[in-house]
Amino acid sequence: MTYICIMYEKKLPVDLQCGLHLFMEVMSGKWKIALIWCIHLGIKRPGELHRRIPKASRRILDTQLKQLTTLGIIDKTVFEQLPLKVEYELTALGETLIPVIETTAQWGEKHRAILEPFFLNPAVK
Amino acid sequence: MTYICIMYEKKLPVDLQCGLHLFMEVMSGKWKIALIWCIHLGIKRPGELHRRIPKASRRILDTQLKQLTTLGIIDKTVFEQLPLKVEYELTALGETLIPVIETTAQWGEKHRAILEPFFLNPAVK
DNA sequence: TCAAGTACGGCTAAATTTAGCCATATCAGA
DNA sequence: TCTGATATGGCTAAATTTAGCCGTACTTGA
Q1: B38 vs A103, B32, B43, B46, B65, CA distance in Å?
Q2: Is A19 in Cβ contact with B110 (below 8 Å)?
Q3: Domains of chain A
Q4: How far is B15 from chain A (nearest CA, A)?
Q5: Mean pLDDT per 10-residue interval, chain A, length 125 residues
Q6: Which strand C bases fall within 7 angstroms of a protein CB?
């Protein structure tokens, strides 16, 4: 079966020589980290995810959830009942991401004091 | 001293609750991983970096080198001689990134077989 | 003096991602 | 029957990042 994927069809080639590029391709997307982490914490339903991440529009959360599903990081279960009920959960592959995320998060926390000022006020040093 | 930073001045706020967001902010940029890794391997001069990463334009490499410098990941040394000579090297902060990069790269390599097809041929399953 | 090397900046267009609006359908409860 | 909750899609504009062109200045060597 052939179908149009929701991933933007890139006109410029992607480089994947190094494994970190693969990681970055998976994680890049403004809300993917938050989504993965919320699902890891047990927040499974799209409505509740949206309430937990209120700054993101419903639209972009859907888009990125779909991308993560396509990549095999999360699974989507549609309960065939009315009203519709949907749940997301991490796949086995998604679970392997958790310790890696923790490693990078620890790095970020450790150096937060140095890094944060540049992002909060990038125009002035 | 106040100066205009080369970072794009964002009109939408950035979220940094979690340390992983800090890591992602530092690493995001198409060529930053390659730049950090090359510098880690001892390739120090801008011209040689460009020859090692020929697919990137000189312009964008300069831009991302400057961003990494601003963030304190690399240091730039200008030798006051003519013709000009410039060298980059990792700062202490940049060095702390190496084991983290290795962790994420290992994750990517381990799952390359599953992930790669989605990026190489995203339009068809 | 011309080409080629060093390094750097301005500027604009293209590519890519994100935001935000409007609309669908079904169900439960007031 | 009106409101609000469930979940989802089409579409376009805005925001952001990357690519690519042209130009600067200095040096060395042919």
Answers
A1: 22, 10, 5, 11, 12
A2: yes
A3: 19-120 (1.10.10.10)
A4: 9
A5: 42 61 87 92 93 90 94 92 88 95 91 80 40
A6: 5-11, 14-22, 26-28
